[in-house]
Amino acid sequence: MGVTAKTVELHGTRGLRLAADVAGDPTRPSVLLLHGGGQTRHAWRRTLDALAGEWYVHNVDLRGHGESAWDPEGDYTMDAFAQDARLLADAMPTPPVMIGASLGGLSSLLAIGEAPQRCVASALVLVDVAPRIEADGVNRIGAFMTGNLDGFASLEEVADVIAAYNPHRPRPRDLSGLRKNLRQRADGRWVWHWDPRFVSGRFGSPDETRSSILNPNRLQDAARHLTLPTLLVRGRMSDLLSEEGARELLDLVPHARYADVAGAGHMVAGDRNDIFNNAIVDFLRSLPPPPVR
């Protein structure tokens, strides 16, 4: 049985409503969980359960995802995601450990690294992402996210597509859990939970969204400014973050620790959740008390 979490409404850039699950004791050190693009906060559910006994955890749906609001201007640039992350961190009782997967990790990296004069966070965990990521992995994710924008006739169709994308995971027998990642339109078709403009861009071009997110020079500069405790977690089977990409991040951030999770792909937390959670808990327990703002 998981911990009891309270669903709350938070706010990002320009007051955009962001949905979050909050669990744990507010007097404990804070943790902020930010999922990857195309996911929801439910991807972190077992991680929230593992952390809430010792830390005060906020698990947030990114803008345009899950139960969070869609940006009225279709702003899904890295500037918007990073500013949301910074605002969320600023609102927590103590500078949080920011744990971000993929897009959530890049948002956290920029939120911290582009404000080196501020105490945005007490530590950073990057999950299967770094300034250098592989084009083949990016293209595979892009094809998955843009391949079914017209939706699905049934949850069976959804399960088939997910199984093809993640062939190393068993296909779920109970399909009801898929509803957390979908919305059902008035015509009965199931569509992904995220705003389609997240992949199409404000001007109807996927290249606009991609160019905002994939800016290695900007990300490298942010990484060079990291002085806080940092952990990089890579899925050893990942086609997005290679061993070379991981080593480049470790060169940019020489004090960073590194965990390479065997048997996991890009979705590290979902593929090998127990191993992933153990690595996160060990890292968090090693940290000094969070600084006072």
Describe what is shown at a glance.
With about 290 residues, this protein is an alpha/beta fold.
Walk me through the structure.
The chain has 293 residues and is α/β, with parallel strands linked by helices. It has 2 domains: 6-134 and 215-285, Rossmann fold (3-Layer(aba) Sandwich), CATH 3.40.50; 137-200, no CATH class. The chain contains 11 helices and 10 strands. It has helices at residues 45-51, 78-90, 103-113, 135-146, 155-165, 197-200, 206-213, 216-224, 243-252, 268-271, 273-285; strands at residues 6-11, 17-23, 30-34, 56-60, 97-101, 123-127, 182-184, 190-192, 230-235, 257-261. The strands form 2 sheets. Strands 1-2-4-3-5-6-9-10 form an 8-stranded mixed β-sheet, sandwiched between helices. It has a two-stranded antiparallel ribbon with strand order 7-8. The longest helix is centred in the first third of the chain and has 13 residues, at 78-90.
